[in-house]
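Anyone opening a protein record will find just a pair of labelled lines. A complete record is shown below as an example.
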Amino acid sequence: MVSNEALIRTEHPPHRIMDKRNGHLKAPGWIKVETIPQTVNRSNKSLSNPGILLKLVLFTVVFILSFHFPNFIPDLSQREQTIREILDVLERQPTGLANVTKEQLAEVIYEEAARYNQDPKLILALIATESEFYNWAVSEKGAKGLMQIMPYVAESLAQELGIEWSGDRTLFNPYLNIRMGIHYLSQLMLDFKDVRTALTAYNYGPTYVKGLVERKEKIPHHYYRKFLTAYRSI
């Protein structure tokens, strides 16, 4: 039997040998080095990996959206944040509405304000001034709902917007009341070209305010000051 002792070196580890041709370290001649050839087909591997394909698709979609809609993603986050802020205001008020209705109402207020390029906070301040956020409010003169719209005005607005008119049922529907109210306010802003005058006309009536303007009489500002107080408190 041949002894294995001669193959074991105990005095020190084997020296590393420098290959003078390329400066790389070279194993001693008595060590057998085996090289395992890599025969991986990279093109097939990348195509067969579903994770890589998914990333490629997502990258393409994001690239297209960022090119055609550069503010698409920021707008989404801003939308959700603003709706959340509107809902926070509604949840602090005695609206007389269910929680689910408040959530949907917050979205309606945001969408309708955006449609007419209005500040949602301005709409909330107007609701606070008109009805104190109580959906079932009725004024002494007969204005109804969150935005306190007179029935004859609401019927005309409903016709303009293609809303089926059902009297109180339409006026006390919070979503429809908001739609009609914001549409009405936007019309007044276009007519008077001034936010203060438009808000005064919303409360006093456009015919009365137009008469004051035509006669060059002083427009009352009591309502506008009340509105500003509500706006600053929201």
